[in-house]
Design brief:
two-stranded antiparallel sheet; alpha+beta; 8 strands; 2 domains; 7 helices; about 15% strand; elongated
Length: about 170
């Protein structure tokens, strides 16, 4: 529905991100991120399209869990559109599929979430009586997968790798 609406000019995404193409949304499973021009009609039309999707599919969109982030736009406009969409006002950085969008991956603080997840996992394992071999298996199977997704998108600073190794 969003592709059709963009072709009809009802909504407008970011143009020429990829030369000759426009990007209005990215979807993964039941998550979606919308990239729209900051225009009241575009936002209202998108809301109508999402409401139509609810009616036709029988699924519900939880607008209270959704949020609106403005890029290079007036804050007052974003607040007005929050009221239209009945969602929250968001700010950078925000998480989408576990990746903090808008964060600088070169900053060590951007990796704090990954480091904390590793610490949380290890804390639970320390109290268990696991053999050395069991611990190696857990580290290789579980702990190594936590940062892999993040590292597949961003280059990890050496200081973060040292911090994780130390833990």
């Amino acid at each position: 529905m969003l592709v059709e609406a963009e072709e009809l000019g009802v909504i407008e995404g970011f143009k020429d991100v990829i030369p000759g193409h426009s990007v209005s949304h990215l979807q993964f499973a039941d998550d979606i991120i919308l990239f729209l021009r900051a225009d009241e009609d575009v936002v209202r039309n998108t809301k109508y399209i999402l409401c139509c999707f609810e009616i036709f599919s029988g699924l519900s969109i939880n607008f209270r869990k959704s949020f609106l982030v403005g890029f290079d736009t007036e804050e007052e406009f974003v607040f007005r559109m929050d009221v239209v969409c009945k969602c929250k006002f968001g700010d950078l950085p925000f998480n989408y599929l576990g990746i903090p969008l808008g964060a600088d991956p070169r900053k060590i603080s951007s990796w704090d979430g990954i480091v904390k997840r590793v610490e949380r996992k290890l804390t639970g394992w320390k109290s268990r009586s696991l053999s050395w071999a069991d611990r190696v298996v857990l580290i290789n199977a579980v702990l190594s997968s936590l940062p892999i997704y993040f590292m597949s998108i961003f280059q990890v600073p050496i200081a973060v790798i040292k911090k994780i190794d130390k833990i």
